[in-house]
Amino acid sequence: MTQTTATDETATSQSEHIAQLDRSHVFHSWSAQAQISPLPVAGAEGSYFWDYSGRRYLDFSSQLVNVNIGHQHPKLIAAIQEQAARLATIAPSFANDARSEAARLIAELAPGDLNKVFFTNGGAEANENALRMARLHTGRHKVLAAYRSYHGSTAGAITATGDPRRWGSEPAISGVVHYWGPYQYRSPFHAESEEQECERALAHLRDTLMVEGAHTVAAIILEPVVGTNGILVPPENYLAGVRAICDEFGIMLIADEVMAGFGRCGEWFAVDRWNVTPDLITFAKGVNSGYLPLGGVIISAKIASTFDNVPYPGGLTYSGHPLACASAVASINIFKEEKIVENARTLGTDVIGPLLKQVADRHPSVGEVRGLGVFWALELVTDRETRQPLVPFNASGESAAAMTKFTAECKRRGLWPFVHFNRTHVVPPCTITAEDARQGIEMLDEALFVAD
Ligand code: PLP
């Protein structure tokens, strides 16, 4: 492994210098600026990254659940270099080979008649444009979005978000109404089975539409498998039920696949698992593993045709940037050559899922294990009977101490975990080996003793 092994003073002082500049000049996302001290990272490869002292971490977070292909894939880097040498930038109004090919490949992967791609720089912009398209196509203005969802931090996307990250931005855009999606472990509907949860969630959605006026609703936006709010895998018939409701009332279904897509769920798109075809799919993250900023909206023929003779009132200077698109082309080809989607699916069923269930058997603090592919969560509780979360909603200080300690214990062992409220998500690259997954889960298992 070609990692930095320097442990000398130069490396330490370089690391301190970077940290110092960061503290002085970088304004960080979602953070109280005085309270963070990000780790300076010297390099990465595959499922690992390391600091300037050469200390390695197994990346069980895939950074922000986006490095699906693993770090520093040589073919992906070569493709970016090749494109940069040939044509580093060109405005969206021109055509270029990288953009056309990326759009063709993505459209080919998408279900049904979703065959045009509008490129953005990331997930929030993708959702922003999907909402705009749905509104313009239907001529309606309301949007239904789920509680316990995250759709990004631009005005429309953060308004659609159904978690506390929205609060600081309110009021943002008008016309967004939230509803409850299924979450059987903490059922908003007091359901006792998956079937009941599904039935009641769909009935609740119908009721919400009735009181809002279905004819005023342009779109329902949802994460097919909810990501940062807990890896909530929907009941078997839920997405098909939502699709049917949308069809009945002429509402556009937007699947936000920013986190769930491109292999994360062991499918190209999470909706494939349930054979559901949305009207719009938004993607980002895994499409090129974040080697360059890229996202987009995959648009059904029906919606795209709205703009055949009427201009689409939206655009971005970097829409379909050749470097980002070249990285997407390379990434999709690598996914196919290395059977990465299949790897993610098998890891979930044969390795990660079974091992996490054994972890749950050993630790009273684990209330539930859920997930699929390389997209798993352990929900931690103080008491399995009452399901009292180990860390209360909006926890801080003392009450968050258990999770802070757990995180520190993971890092001490060389595991970089993804921790959110009372959960740890197991979301390594889709390319992780079974052996690395096993070792990571062992470290997580040891660290969990602090929570029991
Ligand atoms: N949608 C989902 C489901 C996400 O998980 C995220 C980011 O985590 C976004 C949208 C926003 O994407 P971005 O940060 O690229 O704007």
Bound ligands, named by name, code or SMILES: pyridoxal-5'-phosphate
**How would a textbook summarize the main sheet?**
7 strands, mixed
So what's the overall shape? globular
What value does the average pLDDT take? 95
| Fraction of residues in H or I helices | 25-40%
Helix and strand pattern? HEEEHHHEHEHEHEHEEEHHHEEEHEEEH
Question: How many angstroms separate the termini?
Answer: 36 Å
Fraction of residues in β-strands: 15-25%
Please give the order of strands in the largest beta sheet: 4-10-9-8-7-5-6
Low-confidence stretches: none
Structural class estimated from helices and strands: alpha/beta
Q: If helices are DSSP runs of H or I spanning 4 or more residues, what is the number of helices?
A: 13
Oligomer: single chain
Write the layout of secondary structure elements.
Elements: H1 9-25, E1 41-45, E2 48-51, E3 56-59, H2 62-65, H3 74-86, H4 97-109, E4 114-120, H5 123-138, E5 142-146, H6 155-160, E6 176-179, H7 194-212, E7 217-222, H8 238-249, E8 252-256, E9 280-283, E10 295-300, H9 301-304, H10 322-337, H11 340-362, E11 366-372, E12 375-383, E13 388-389, H12 401-412, E14 415-416, E15 418-420, E16 423-426, H13 434-447
Parallel strand pairs: 3-14, 5-6, 5-7, 7-8, 8-9
Antiparallel strand pairs: 1-2, 2-3, 4-10, 9-10, 11-12, 12-13, 12-16, 15-16
The structure holds pyridoxal-5'-phosphate.
GO molecular function: pyridoxal phosphate binding; transaminase activity
Family: Belongs to the class-III pyridoxal-phosphate-dependent aminotransferase family.
Protein name: Taurine---2-oxoglutarate transaminase
